[in-house]
């Protein structure tokens, strides 16, 4: 499991002295299907409403001392946070079996271009995990690293840093089990986080990710557990690379080759069929895990989500594989 292997390979060095700005918890029924510009060819999305939300307005002090009633077990809240000079927001989902006396992992889930946090929450079903799930909203529905991103360099990463720092003031975060997952542009941003923030993140999972050049700039060189999931017939972010928004992006094989070198994999790789549509490739002799799931005839979608209409893809396939890779169980059914 990625989290356990990360403990053996590194000592987490948390950066102190973070000043957390004014944060307001605004809980609402926040649902917006958004603009699916990066999901062309993936079908219509039919998603259910997100988890139960409470109705509390609260504040985090500039010193980071909690001064609010945080979302409790089984609740989901929309939270506003001052970061890098502007007010931003994210959805926080707390599992229904959360116990304050036990350390809990965190998964950041980044939406695709033209989407939003609420949509990401509805189609991924990551709320089923025994973890705090953070769904941040990108500025103008995009993330750093893409040619169309509108945030200044480093501002989205600072936002992630500030969210994690704020969570630690309220919840018993397991700092060695913090992960990132993302779809499309969000997948590229999760890859960037894995490159540049491996001291804070134990692993990343990338679905239909767009690997523009900026994603892999200035990588730290430290290994990070990585799972890539991509469809062979993705018409938006092609498996074999291409050009989009006037900018070249890397092929999946090229990205995996870089990852194998970074994770110091020396034992080659093997392939395993996991269902009628997908084959998993696992690398061996790596300092940290590296895996790829190749979805045959897969399109630009989160495999197994409601907008993935292919009959041979198991329901919630991508989410189940991501949680398995992260070593995080689902909340037991009632």
TrEMBL record:
Lineage, top ranks:
Bacteria, Bacillati, Actinomycetota, Actinomycetes, Mycobacteriales
Protein's GO biological process: xylan catabolic process
**Where found in the cell?**
Secreted
Single GO term (MF): feruloyl esterase activity
Transmembrane region(s): 12-31
Xref: PANTHER family? FERULOYL ESTERASE C-RELATED, PTHR38050
Q: What is this protein called?
A: Feruloyl esterase
Q: List the biased-composition ranges (Low complexity).
A: 47-57
Kindly name one Pfam family recorded for this protein: Esterase
GO CC: one term?
extracellular region
Q: What InterPro entries does its record include?
A: AB_hydrolase_fold, Esterase-like, FaeB/C/D
Endpoints of the signal sequence: none
Asked if the record carries the keyword Transmembrane helix, the reply is: yes
* Stored SUPFAM superfamilies: alpha/beta-Hydrolases
Task: Region Disordered: list its residue ranges.
Answer: 40-73
Query: Major place of localization?
Result: secreted
Q: Which UniProt keywords apply?
A: Carbohydrate metabolism, Hydrolase, Membrane, Polysaccharide degradation, Secreted, Signal, Transmembrane, Transmembrane helix, Xylan degradation
């Amino acid at each position: 499991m990625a989290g356990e292997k990360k403990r053996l390979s590194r000592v987490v060095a948390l950066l102190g002295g973070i000043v957390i700005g004014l944060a307001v918890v605004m809980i609402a029924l926040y649902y917006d299907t958004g603009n699916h510009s990066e999901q062309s060819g993936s079908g219509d999305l039919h998603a259910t409403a997100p988890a139960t939300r409470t109705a509390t307005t609260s504040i985090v002090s500039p010193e980071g001392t909690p001064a609010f009633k945080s979302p409790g077990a089984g609740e989901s809240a929309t939270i506003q946070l001052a970061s890098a000079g502007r007010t931003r927001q994210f959805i926080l989902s707390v599992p229904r079996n959360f116990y304050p006396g036990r350390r809990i992992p965190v998964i950041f889930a980044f939406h695709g271009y033209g989407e939003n946090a609420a949509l990401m929450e509805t189609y991924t079903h990551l709320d089923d995990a025994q973890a705090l799930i953070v769904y941040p909203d990108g500025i103008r529905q995009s993330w750093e690293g893409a040619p169309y991103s509108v945030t200044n360099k480093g501002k989205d990463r600072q936002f992630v840093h500030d969210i994690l720092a704020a969570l630690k003031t309220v919840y018993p975060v397991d700092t060695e089990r913090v992960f990132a997952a993302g779809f499309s542009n969000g997948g590229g941003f999760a890859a960037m986080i894995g490159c540049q923030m491996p001291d804070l993140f134990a692993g990343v999972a990338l679905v239909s990710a767009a690997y523009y050049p900026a994603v892999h700039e200035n990588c730290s060189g430290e290994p990070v557990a990585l799972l890539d999931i991509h469809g062979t017939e993705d018409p938006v972010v092609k498996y074999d690379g291409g050009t989009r928004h006037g900018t070249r992006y890397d092929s999946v094989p090229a990205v995996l080759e870089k990852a194998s070198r970074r994770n110091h994999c020396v034992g080659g790789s093997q392939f395993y069929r996991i269902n009628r549509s997908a084959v998993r490739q696992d690398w061996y002799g790596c300092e940290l895990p590296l895996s790829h799931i190749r979805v045959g005839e897969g399109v630009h979608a989160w495999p197994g989500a409601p907008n993935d209409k292919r009959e041979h893809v198991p329901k919630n396939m991508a989410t189940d594989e991501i949680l398995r890779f992260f070593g995080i169980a689902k909340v037991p059914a009632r």
